Input
Amino acid sequence: MTAPLDVSGSAAEAHPESVLAGAGKAIQGRSLTRIAWMRLRRDKVALAGGGVVVLLILVAIFSSPIIAAFGHPPLEFHQDQIDPATLLPKGTFGGMGGEYLLGVEPVNGRDIFSRIVAGAWISLLIGFLATVVSVIIGTVLGVIAGYFGGWVDQVIGRIMDVFLAFPLLVFAIALAGVIPDQGFGLEGNGLRIAMLIFIIGFFSWPSIGRIVRGQTLSLREREFVDAAKSLGARNGYIIFREVLPNLVAPILVYATLLIPTNILFEASLSFLGVGINPPTPTWGGMLSEAVRFYTLPHFVIFPGLAIFITVLAFNLFGDGLRDAFDPRAH
Amino acid sequence: MLTYIIRRLIGAFAMLVVISMVTFGIFYVVPQWAGATPEAMASRYVGRAATPETVHLVAERLGFYDPVVVQYGNFVKGLFAGAQYDYGAGVEHCPAPCFGYSFITGQPVWPDLLDRLPVTFSLAIGAALIWVVAGVAVGVLSALRRGSFFDRLTMGTALAGVSLPIFFTGMISLVVFSYGLGWTPPGGAWTDFSENPAEWAYNLLLPWITLAFLFAATYARLTRAGMLETMGEDYIRTARAKGLRERQVVVKHGLRATLTPILTLFGIDFGLLIGGAILTETTYTLPGLGQYAILAIRTQDMPQVMGVVLVAAMFVVIASLVVDLLYAVVDPRVRLS
Amino acid sequence: MRRKHALAGAATAVLALVLSACGGGGGTAQPAASASGGGAQAAFNAAVTGVFNPSTKKGGTLKAAHSADWDSLDPGDTYYGYSFNFGRFYWRTLTMYKPGPGPEGNTVVPDLAESLGEPSEDGKTWTYKLKSGLKFEDGTPITAKDVAYAVARSFDKETFPHGPSYLNELLEWPEDFKGVYKTPDVDFSSAVEATDDSTLVFHLKKPFASMDYVVQMPMTAPVPKDKDTGAKYREKVISSGPYKFETNEIGKRFTLVRNDQWDPTTDPNRPALPDRIEVQLNVNADDLDNQLIAGDIQLDIPGTGMQPAALGKVLPDPALKARTDNPTIPRLWYVSVIPDTPPLDNVNCRKAIMWAADRVANQTAYGGEVAGGEIATNVMPPGIVGQEKFDQYPSADNKGDVAKAKEALTACGQPNGFSTTMAFRADRPREKALAEAMEQALARVGIKLTLKGFPASSYFSDYAGNVDYVKKNGIGLAGHGWGSDWPDGYGFMQAIVDSRTIRDAGNYNLSVKNPEVDKLIDQASAELDETARAKLWVEVDKKVMEDASILPVVWAKSLLMRGQGVTNVAYNEGQSMYDYAMLGVE
Output
């Protein structure tokens, strides 16, 4: 479930007990994966979402040949397409046509189609990698909290509370505003992308952390963990061999659902002007420029649609995935 | 019960302390790591072509020469004991809670926050009303008619709803309904409720609906899932067997159990929303706390940033406290300990 | 920040005449220089050539709006052109710019003073005689003491950090004077003194010829000592002009109503037509334009021109376009080419940037020929006294000369180009567009530009204007803009080309660090002959261009819209926007 964007962190994921209670009980070794896969295959909507996700990934990977075939380089200016007085595209419908599939941007005449294709890369990269960061932090802290309990659980629980009470967007904007130019062996936009991934991931981990903690808590009480303990297995062994494998399914499900939230987060930061530096195209950045030219529908709608379709596809797929792993909600 | 509340309050307080320290760190310490001197920081708050003496005086006045710990200490002291503000011709006492004076306008921050709170509160309360009623109603109906056309249509819409960024829907709705059709006022329109309730609602209608659309989607989905789960429980069957009318079964037994997670979600959403509906307020240029936060960050007006962040965090903390207390009322099984 | 001059005005006026003649409609266009000209016939540039819709009708409410917040309403603490302009509704200063259109708008006329200032033989003492019958809004008479006090209080930059520092630097302040609040007992009469109720004397450290221009700034607006509340005075300013504050909600709105103590016979410059003036603050800029077009708002206070979305609506529509004016303002938008950052320490590498830049793309980025400005080929904008237009880096169609750029690169020892970083203000869409245009243009010759946006609020303090930051982060180019306080070379150039103004942080001169330029500046400042002085400033301009440390982009123009139902509208060159104090409503 994607949280409405204004809350940035997903409140829905903060208390997912209602859906999770089922997932935990349903975990029964490998056969579950097979059952889930069978269910998923029957879920046409989820498959369609998954298909779009795969398509988007392909577009991101092959953006260069796609742009070469159907568009102009995303950074290239085409000022012959622009009315020098109003700075708006000369052609009707924002200059849309065979030459410029989705029209051109005002002021510099850049090809909107190419910029949207090129922007897919940033959105997906940040969406995925930020989720990886959240999953790593969330899993580590969630397992520790759930498995060891007691004061460790208390401390980690409090930390999660603090994160949930943070006006995240405010912090992210403030932090993104002070990113240095060089560091960690990176510079320019490379560093900026890395920092955005870290910032977004770092602020989204509690949602995964809560789920993992809850699951670990229930797994800890299960017979096979008791059995391992009575056989003298060490904590490390139990965590890695007994607990973690059983967490893969819920983590996968919630990671899939976190990706679109993170994509929206990146888009909001770019929209507010603290995302990736120009001229690298991003969807949020395009929308933020479109605000100044709100009279041009094509300039507003295409980047908005790109965000919408991507987020929707991930949501559909993630939803199907959850249903597949959770027979009770099905 | 009382000890529980006290313990939670202490926890909440500790949380606010942590948050204030982190915020302070970001705005006061990070720039120094980046190499900003006290003079460099002060030169943000002076007019064009200010002389070095002016910059030095301002740096001194804003306390930038003090160690960060002292600056933070002064901030905290202002919160609890109030502060003295030298406005040149005299000294003014800024009573607790004193969030200080804007570095740019010289106005005290606290009255500013109080002034903007009603805007954000109005936005949140109206949107919340719409999204809870619509979301829960749609969720219940969908669950009862599972698999029907209505179910698929509303759940499809709901999924689309959560996938739309508000700065996109907001912009489109403004272009269509305000600039295009002229049905709704343009962005930035705001009338206080006490001045003219009708105009208040009219001005907020578009932001309410846009915001509610996003949230209602989440609530509808959650309600539907919850209802499906509870309606399959044994006690519902028992209730039906007792011969209760279906409406009673749904409302008294089914919905009640479903509402618990909804309540939690609502508390947090509402708290976060009051803390800063940044994107909504930016899109519609509503003079609320979210817009205040963005302006404060853009102009690096540190007292304003500290104030808005702390107030925002406070609302989240209060909301989650209230939710936990309400839990005990809604669900008698919950014991506060 | 502001100020202009004659040439541009005349040129624009002539151009406008041609345009209105062509644009037709049988307009009543009048000779440009006649301030009494103009008419009610809406035509493009009608308020540049004369007074549009002239009227003497009193009454009504003028509705104005501002897309941001005022820096301060306190006359001692404000430094925006719109504030100097608008403030004349509620303050009076010793002198003021002559109201109305045309080049005369650049001259100053007496306001509180009976006549312009009387300099002493050595030019170090200036005396102003006040008119009689001047009163504050509470009826107490305005005396020279109140003006002297206002000047003295503005000295305290800790309390009033926003205002100009000219008088702090020009006057002979006592060593131990720290402002009227910290050292209330120190006698500041060595700097400014009221020798009697109507005589005010300024004592300067060194001769200074343009005192009449300095005292039109609001530091000389009288402030009654017993009503002065320091930094809080902005909340309740005591009026000396035709209007006074009825309400004032800082950051939101304020209302001015007639000040019945203002005596029109003492004030020939202000017609004071409306009964009431309502000002909304922090209105969304796009909404402001829409409301201006629709007539819900009649005056856009910042006076810097319409937003891009509105341009697309206004320019293609003849009826709307006829409501607009398109003056050139004395402001240059440019790129600083910073010689501290290798390989830009080599002048040939800087020249490569001059040659490679695409001036048309840059102009478009800055808003195009109407809203942006004229392509600039050198530093001083038209309108500055004695300005000469010249071009040391000409190219076909102004698209840049790739061959010459490559030659320069070879001469610099970087035949394949190099990489550098360009800073820009991220919250300024035009500067961002400029950075993108530069990136594209320089890529043609192998110069790879990394763009880096910073918040405008700390751009000069922490980033582009911070010497340490620039060096550590290898900032080679930086977006910049400058407008003049004076209509002469000193007023425009000194702050951005004199390397001796450079300090650790908060610099406005980011890139001109040439001892020869400094030497020329000293020569020009010491030159007493006006023509010779102007020539020397042109020399400075040429030297800077040879040094290739400033890449000029555009000499700014703004597209202003006259509000619906507003009378007596004229573009004033002194204010670089409409003359607000003249306005009335139908």
The first strand of chain C starts at residue 61 and ends at 65. Chain C touches chain B through 56 residues (CB under 8 Å). Residues 1-38 of chain C have pLDDT under 50 and may be disordered.
